[in-house]
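Objective 1.3, modelling of assemblies. Example input:
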Amino acid sequence: MKLYTQSLAQLAAGLKAREFSSVELTRMLLARIEAHQPQLNALISVTGTAAMQAAAVADGLLARGGAGALMGIPMVHKDIFCTEGVRTTCASRMLDNFVAPYDATVVAKLKAEGMIMLGKANMDEFAMGSSNETSYFGPVRNPWNPQLVPGGSSGGSAAVVAARLAPLATATDTGGSIRQPAALCGITGLKPTYGRVSRYGMIAFASSLDQGGTLTASAEDAALVLRAMAGFDPRDSTSVDKPVPDYVAGLEQPLAGLKIGLLKEFFEKGLDPANERCVRAALAVYEKLGAKLIEVSLPNLGLSVPAYYVVAPAECSSNLARFDGVRFGHRAKDPKDLMDLYKRSRGEGFGAEVKRRIMTGTYVLSAGYYDAFYIKAQKVRRLIANEFDQAFRQVDVVMGPTTPTVAFALGSKTSDPITMYLNDIYTIGANLAGLPAMSIPCGLVQNLPVGLQIIGRHFAEERLLSAAHAYQRETDWHTRVPPGYE
Amino acid sequence: MKPEQIASIAHLARLAMDEAEIPRYQESLTSILSFVGDLERAQTEDVAPMAHPLPGLVQRLRADVATETDAHELYQANAPQVAASLYLVPKVIE
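Predicted structure (tokens):
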């Protein structure tokens, strides 16, 4: 078995047994990145020299024994996470030259585990997009077909893992930005419960929705990483002070008797019949394993996309007010006064989609429209969260498709924002309600991956991971590598 | 949405915008607002607005003690223009 297709657990075992060194592994993956980056554009920065140095340090620690489960394993961070001394752009011209003065908590935690950062992944600008086409650094291409998008906003992270350029990439999910690219690239994506993973040093988009998580090949890999990434952080005021379970030990929970809710609204119009067949086949596997399928309905779920496109832009307009051309970020040349400095720095620094969302948010928060749009959306948000609550009284998890279709062509949805927004129709509900959710590969349609989404109760990551793991023991979709990357 | 409204929102959001750009935003903001106008359908009498997704969780406060050490040189390394530890902007007071 080739090293780059091995699981995190296999890599860790190989490193511990000194079958190969972290330096060898890191060098091999850097060479893969070099070979495939021109085609995929999956990374914004590659930090090869620092990676090789860190790998040598990890080898020293491994030789002495007693190293942790992730020591010496290379990975990639989404370029939304601040990395001390390393350029952190959020895929925006605004932060093109920004060198983060500190590490995000997620970065610090994985560094402390001895993981080796290979570089920073491309993404939609400020995580606003569903196709990775809003990046200032150009679109990322889907490893399954370079004419197609990888999904977004964590498209670079997903392409890296799908193409086996690294076994792990971090990612963030505000409305589906982990799960949707995971589905379109055929890998496993985990968005934990809101507050489970620290947002400190993760550049804010919509603070009541943003959550950091993982993109890996399998649920087993995700469990290993989440165990290291999750936990209370006093530096994030919405971080939840709750013990972190051993997600790896929890993987083998039996599936028999698991009550799976099939969301009626997920299978209505809009879902491609071929995708539906893959999802239904996956559900049949769960039934065979002893789970019980129960239909549930969330009547207001259809309003989740409109509610999101009020709440998220409102929070984004407020969060992105910090980019003023004064303290950091892009500054316009020769401003004639302070107002000109603000306006032109922001006008030049932000791309079209970011500006569109800032303006939408500014509008819905402005006097006269606040109640009609913003308060109304917050009320609908509660209705949807309450309906999920009701559903979880009957079932343990909810399952359905992650996306309505497989990956679509580059440029095919960029002209109409609503068409693009509707891509997240199945994923946004979990963000509004703060629920943990995953996407796992469950089939191929015309040689393109399809994702199965699993949503759980607050802090039920163990349940999600074990359900995903049970399916991945029965099937091999998560081991499929795109042609040309085997 | 009228062109004047777009210009006014752009001003509130402190975004420079050419005349030529306005129609594009006019079109997309109009379609976004009509799309989110669907929210009107929802029955929300007696529903409290939800600002935070976890039930019962309140924002933590910390003790009012200094925890950060002075690192202005590090932070100002990213600033476009600095002199004598101060951020420089165009003249504000005549």
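Chain B has a mean pLDDT of 93.
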